[in-house]
């Protein structure tokens, strides 16, 4: 019998699974089609930070949407954990942003203004001696640092699985499959063509992350999403777990609940290269050893590389594909795709079910790029 679905969601990363979840909350069943396993690309190997106050476009065009996504995450945790049966370890974190050079001190002190008056956040400058009391293994060479509290973090692989599992419990489906093209006419797609068959569908959501440009040929629509490679090394602890995220000099240490220190992260435009590089691992280690000398001989437990989906203006691409009645884009979240997953899922589901959303996605419309390709 021919396979059919109301909504075919192509891509089982955080974006696709979040759309499936919010659609299911509105009573719409979907099929997530994923070729590499759920959350096995960037959504499974990100640092999992949900920082709504800093990053490209924040403050700025992504600020309001980022804050809404952050609030959605906070409100979602208990119910999604319960619905899915998966604890994705949403928690509040504190960070020490360290100055290694005199020239960095004033900028870091000034950045405390970003946190001022923001509910749930706090930031203040600490001298070297105060930092040594909080984290004695931090290098005595640091000149001080900004302590900030209030950011949240999750296990992004488990978050992705939780969205999908909850959607499945509400009647949606996850299907392994490699989508090769879309077929349809008159502004409507009615079939998804896979390597091993085809699925008839009422609507389509493209959530293919850094591979989204593949759909340009299927739709004749410009979808400028490019891959930005990022690597993370996981170092074992030589002692007690760190109590803070630690950053400075281009290195960051995220102590995770798996007991490992996730260290990174890098940004390289290398096409679709996903090979972890030993040279990059050495560079990351050099950077974090300047912050915590003990990490020089910490055992390397795991090293991953994956690809962020980045648009020319660093804003995601959300909404109906120009020229198509039943095709939606949910992609391009760049370095913020775990933070933005809630808002991507909710806004796209809102547009599909109600034709509008209250979330601040005005700058994210697919039409902002050249519309139809020849
Ligand atoms: C090192 C690193 C650290 C990061 N840290 C953070 C962080 O701290 N906070 C944060 O918010 N963000 C972070 N990010 C960014 C975040 O991980 C991404 O923005 C997010 O995961 C993108 O999700 P996605 O679902 O759009 O893409 P993906 O996770 O790439 O998912 C897309 C899926 O589509 C599937 N797919 C593609 N084409 C097809 C096809 N033809 N058929 C079937 N399936 C297909 C792929 O297999 C993939 O699973 C980080 C990223 C990296 C690389």
What does this structure look like?
The chain is an alpha/beta fold and 374 residues long. It has two domains: 3-85 and 156-225 and 313-368, FAD/NAD(P)-binding domain (3-Layer(bba) Sandwich); 91-150 and 227-310, D-Amino Acid Oxidase, subunit A, domain 2 (D-Amino Acid Oxidase, Chain A, domain 2), CATH 3.30.9.10. Helix content is 27%, strand content 29%. The chain is built from nine helices and 16 strands. Strands 1, 2, 6, 7, 8, 9, 15 and 16 form an eight-stranded mixed β-sheet that branches. Helix 1 (14-25) packs parallel to helix 6 and helix 3 (63-84) packs across helix 6 (156-169). The protein starts with a strand and ends in a 20-residue tail after the last helix. The model has no long low-confidence stretch (mean pLDDT 96). Flavin-adenine dinucleotide binds next to helix 1, strand 2, helix 2, strand 10 and strand 14.
Instruction: Compute the separation of the termini in Å.
Output: 36 Å
The CATH topology of the largest domain: FAD/NAD(P)-binding domain
- What is the helix content? 25-40%
Give a quick account of the main beta sheet: strands, pairing sense, barrel closure.
8 strands, mixed
CATH superfamily of the largest domain: FAD/NAD(P)-binding domain
């Amino acid at each position: 019998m021919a396979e059919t679905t109301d909504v075919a969601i192509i891509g089982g990363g955080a974006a696709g699974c979040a759309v499936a979840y919010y659609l299911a909350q509105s009573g719409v069943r979907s099929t997530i089609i994923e070729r590499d396993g759920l959350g096995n690309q960037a959504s499974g190997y990100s640092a999992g930070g949900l920082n709504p106050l800093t990053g490209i476009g924040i403050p700025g065009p992504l600020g309001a949407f980022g804050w809404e996504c952050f609030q959605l995450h906070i409100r979602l945790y208990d119910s999604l954990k319960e619905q899915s049966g998966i604890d994705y370890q949403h928690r509040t974190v504190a960070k020490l942003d360290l100055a290694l050079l005199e020239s960095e001190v004033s900028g870091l002190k000034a950045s405390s203004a970003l946190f001022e008056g923001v509910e749930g956040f706090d930031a203040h400058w600490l001298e070297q001696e105060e930092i040594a009391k909080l984290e004695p293994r931090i290098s005595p060479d640091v000149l001080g640092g900004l302590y900030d509290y209030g950011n949240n973090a999750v296990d992004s692989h488990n978050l992705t699985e939780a969205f999908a599992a909850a959607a499945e419990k509400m009647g949606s489906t996850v299907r392994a499959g490699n989508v090769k093209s879309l077929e349809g006419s008159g502004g409507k797609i009615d079939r998804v063509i896979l390597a091993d068959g085809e699925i008839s569908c009422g609507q389509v959501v493209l959530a293919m992350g850094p591979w989204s440009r593949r759909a340009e040929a299927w739709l004749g629509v410009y979808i400028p999403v490019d891959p930005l490679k990022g690597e993370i090394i996981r170092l074992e602890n030589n002692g007690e777990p760190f109590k803070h995220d630690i950053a400075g000099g281009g290195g960051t240490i995220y102590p995770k609940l798996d007991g490992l220190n996730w260290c990174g992260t890098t940004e390289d435009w290398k096409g679709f290269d996903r090979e972890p590089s030993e040279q990059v691992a050495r560079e990351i280690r050099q950077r974090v050893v300047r912050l915590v000398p003990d990490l020089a001989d910490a055992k390397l437990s795991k090293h991953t590389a994956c690809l962020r989906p980045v648009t020319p203006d660093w804003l995601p691409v959300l909404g109906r594909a120009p020229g198509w009645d039943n095709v939606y884009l949910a992609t391009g979240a760049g370095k913020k795709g775990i933070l933005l997953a809630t808002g991507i899922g909710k806004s796209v589901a809102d547009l599909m079910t109600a034709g509008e959303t209250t979330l601040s996605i005005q700058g994210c419309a697919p039409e902002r790029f050249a519309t139809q390709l020849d």
